Amino acid sequence: MKYIKNTTQSNKTWIGKVVEPDEYYLIPEDKENAFGNDATVITDITSGEAVIAKDDTGNNDITDIVLAINFLKNLTTPSVVNINQPFASKILSDGKKLYTRIHGISATVSGAADNIDFSVPYNNCKITGIEIFNGELGDKINLKILDTPTGTISGVANYTLNQFGFNVYIDSAMYRYQSNYDADLIKDMVLRLEYDAVTADESPKTVYVNIILHEVKD
User: Fold this and answer.
1) Do the beta carbons of residue 209 and residue 104 sit within 8 Å?
2) CA–CA separation, 184 vs 126, rounded Å?
3) Which residues contact 132 (CB under 8 A, 6 or more apart)?
């Protein structure tokens, strides 16, 4: 059985069904495919306005976006996990191990917004932070997570699955953000920094970015 929960304070309509706030809806078997391929449903899951669950008790909500969408699409049978629980050990509860992998990239930016993209090279990993060097006071960024070029999660190539930074202003010289919570990524997902630089004459400058990942391996 698959349930979808409306986590907002307003009615939501999915595939013709009106679901009230905080209500669970049992997805009929003959509509599972429609739900799994509906852009509105996928968008609401990735934005947190909907949660996929294995029952309506509130104890088996699948809060990991990747696992939730895979479960909805029958791509895998996930165990229930909570991405809001930070890991404090190299060994996860399922016995898999974490290996820190820090990647550095550089890019030229100017007065207009520029996209700095990084393609995830690992089958499974977690991200906990980024560092940006050589910025300028007043520069601002959006941090987005895009689906793979083949649309592995959403069915739509390079679809925006989530956004973690919204017009975040950075300090000059160095900016660092280290999250207390990890987020899961899979191979070929794209981390996109939309970098809006402050430059008096729109002359280009080079910024340097470190991305703090933790590869998940057996």
Assistant:
1) yes
2) 5
3) 141, 170, 174, 175, 176, 193, 207, 208, 209, 210
> Mind listing the pLDDT tens digit for each residue in 28-73?
999 988 898 787 888 788 778 899 999 999 998 988 777 788 788 8
Polymer length in residues for the chain: 218
Q: Sort 168 into a burial class: Cβ within 10 Å, 0-12 / 13-18 / 19+.
A: middle
Pinpoint the alpha helices (H) of 111-211. none
Q: Going by C-beta distance under 8 Å and a sequence separation of 6 or more, which residues neighbour residue 123?
A: 186, 187, 216
- The predicted-structure confidence for 75-109, as pLDDT tens digits, reads as follows 743 333 333 344 445 776 677 888 889 999 999 99
- The answer to whether 205 touches 106, Cβ cutoff 8 Å, is no
Q: Which residues pair with 140 in a beta bridge?
A: 169, 196
- The amino acid at 44: D
Tokens of 84: 């809001």
CA distance 162 to 107: 22
State the Cα angle at 63 between 57 and 67, rounded to 5°.
110
Give CA separation, 53 vs 25, 35, 73, 76, in Å.
10, 13, 13, 14
- DSSP symbol at 135: -
Q: Is 114 within 8 Å of 139 (Cβ atoms)?
A: no
pTM score, whole prediction: 0.61
20: left (phi over 0), alpha (psi -120 to 50) or beta: beta
Q: Rounded distance, CA 181 to CA 188, Å?
A: 22
